[in-house]
Structures are given as C-alpha cells and as structure tokens.
Amino acid sequence: MLKITLRRPLGLILICLAYALAFACGGSTNHAAAPQPHQALWFSDLHFNPFADPAIVPDLAAQDASQWPTLLAGSPIHSQKPGTGQESNQWLLEQSLTQMRAQLPQPDFIIFTGDFLSHWFNETYAEVTGDTSEAGLHAFIDKTLTHISSRFDYYYPNTPVYFCLGNNDSYAGDYLESAGSPFLTASAQILGPRLLKDEGNLQLLFATYPQGGYFEADLAGTGGRILSLDANFLSVHAPQTAEASAETQLDWLASRLSDAAGHGDKVWVLLHIPPGVDVYATLAANNGEEVPPTVVSLMRENHLARLKGLFIEYASTIPAVLAGHIHRDDFRLLLADDGHGASVLVIPSISPVYANNPTYKVLDYSPDTFAIQDCATWYLDGHDGEWKLGQRFSQAYGVEMLNAASLHQLWLDLRTDTSLQTEYALAYNGFRGVDEIGADFRYYWAAMGAMEADGFRNALSDWAGGADTAPAAWLWSESTSHQPAVSPLSVQLWMVDGSAGAAPGMR
To answer: Is the pTM higher than 0.85?
Structure first.
C-alpha cells in the first residue's frame, strides 16, 4: 500500500503531479506509447546523363559497367555540379545518395518513381558515338542502368528500392515502350536483384514486369504492399497500340487491390506519371483565357476514369499514391461526389534540367496503417551547392496527415490563404526562390482538385465567380472527348532564367 504522509508536502505534490501526468497521457501508469513513425526515402527523375562528357563516352561504351565509377570520377565535367538546365551527372548522383544516407542511413525502404535515363538518350547516343545500331544502343542503356542501380546498392546495400519506370526508360524511345519488349526483359534482370534485394519480391517482379512493366512487392510481415505501375501505357503520348496493354495492366491493378483489401493489407501505389491536367502545357496551348478551351491531360481519358474509379473504390486500402514526372512538387485529389477518395503526392526531380533544385523527401509513416503522417523535403541549393531542409509538410501547411481528407481541406484553404499559396510556390520548383507560378496560381490550384478537363474548367469558373468552396460533384465530372488544338507531342522550348528545356510533355 502506498503511504502518503502530510509531514512531507513536497513529496505529496510530486506524487500528485506524477499521477496527473500519467492520466493525462492515457489514463494509466502503464499505458503503452503510440508507435513511433517509421521512415522511408523517396526521390524521382534522376535522368542520369552519361553523355555529359562526350570525351569519355567511347571508354564507357567499351568498358564493363563495373568500371564506370572510375571512368566517371576521372572526368572534370562529371566531377562538378551540373548547372541549371542540365541533366544529372556523376557528381549529382553521388552527392544525392551521400546526402540521403547522411540524413537517413537506415530507412525501412526507398521509393524511386521513375526516369533513370536522361532525355533524348537514343538520339544523343547516336550523335556522340556515331553508332546507329540497336545492339550498341541497347548495350549502352543496359550499362547505364547497371551503373545507376549499382550506386543505389552501394549506398544502401541492405535497403530495398521499390521503383517504377519513367517515360524515358526504354530502348524504343520516349513513351514508346511496348508489352513484352526486350527492354522489359533486360531491365528486370538488371534492376530486380540490385534494387529489390528479396527473393520473394524478385519472383513477383519476374511474374509480371517482363510482360507489362508493372509488379507487386510484399513488405514482408508488415501487412503492406507496393504496387508499381508502368504509367507510360496510360499516357496521352502512348501510341494507340498501347491501349490493350493499358487495359491489361488496369485489370491486374484491380485484381491486386481486391486481394489486398480481402487480406486487410495496405498498399502504396507507384506510378511515374500523375493523373490529371498538365498545367504548363495547358497554359502554353491557350492565349491567357480565364477558362481555357484547350485542356491538356497527362493520361488518356478512359484510363484516367478507370484508374480514378479504382483509387476511389479502394481508398481505405490505399494510404499513399506516389508520382513524379512533372519535376515539380504537387498533389492531386481523386475524390467521389461524397468527398472520399485518394490523393496523389508528386515529387520534384533530382535532375535540374527544368530549372528546379534537386529534391528528395523523407516520409514519416505509421507502421500500423501505412498512412503518411508527415514528410520533410530536402533540396540542393543551386547557388551555394549545399543541401538544405526546405520544409516539413506539417509545419508549412498545418496538416496532421498526408491523406485525401487533409489534402482536400488544404486545397480548399489554398483558395484564399496567401501564406499557404506562398509555401506552395516555394516548394513547387524545389525552393529555387523564383516564383514561376505568379498570377497563374488559380490554374495550378484547379489542377490539384480536378482531374478531368470539364472539372478543371468548372473549378476555374468557380474561382472567377468567387464561390467560397468548390462543390465535390465536379471533382468527378465526366469530361468530353476534347482534343487539344496543339499536339501535346510537339516539343516546345521554354526558358526559365535563361535555361532551356523541353516542354512538360517530354519529361
């Protein structure tokens, strides 16, 4: 029995305080603490450019990929920070992985959302080497992928890297991957063992990836899964011949989501290309209209509708959808009329080719629900070459969880809160300190909440009309078959602070 004597008032006060604190923290002195967040690394769009120094390309082509680190280290061009408007070189690859390991040496896992290879890889290879043979090109792509994945493995030898393919990751060229292609067969053998590091997940990869570029990975013993999609087949830039492959992939996605839901598992979905509107291309295709007649989409309407339907149907199974491709920091909402649904987080690139600072994120997630609780965004300052913390999402936007409900509320708040708009603009291009959104913010805001062309126009109309909130109904509107007046496949050069790059359709 606990004996309390009034002759020692200080002790009595301390005991009372201890009991008060115990009950305040959960009502019991033996109450278990809430699970601490687990952490994962996420980065995207490396766009490694082995041609940055043309002088060493013949040696790279002649030597085994195991010799590439030595060859690249001897190049002055690969030994310095790439400038804005350039692709990633060896310096940026090593600096990025070194910084990630210093910041988070033992993440639970790593996410890479596509585009291992630099833009115009095939054309540059032919121009620099003079070799126009398929065999030479394929061998050089294989070596490039081997080098990249080996460097991932060097810095994180015991950590799985779950990945998806980007539109530049192919033998055939930009957006031209086909089902059952030689590239899918070869890249499975190159990337699978070096990145997944698990025999069971390697078998899952070999079961589907060589045919369609998509695969499942099991986070063993956790109740979590990764579903990696090849979104190139869903893109507006994919050839018409990709339609059947896209439908097959979406059939597979529906089956695996159903299986996960039946087992009570949680799923993170990876896809390179996010759903919704390509804002930059839409603005470029119009003449400053308040509500643009031409809306350029990132995915074909039929594939977007089905993907969105699956994400809404299995919203309770999918705590996270992660994408890259646009080289900018963003999020997208895929909501039903009643407001429930999924959200897509979009990360900027490592490559500074489109005038953004190289960026990666540390994700805090619940080990029980796999919900993303917070994320920290780190960027490489293009001015002084130092890695810096850009923001913690919770502190910048005042949200407690990165899920559809909280991001929907944030989207509504962004409509009128200029301080939140400033945070969004700062993060958008990796904290370059240049507001490239400016007076066009309403278009970016509309694209966060409306995935289809009609919904996008309705959001802009509501913005112009001064409505307090946008109704959920148009978030799930069926857009008409609207073909852009300017082909999104056309390459448009853009300039940001004097740096040239390709139009977003070529990212």
So the answer is: yes
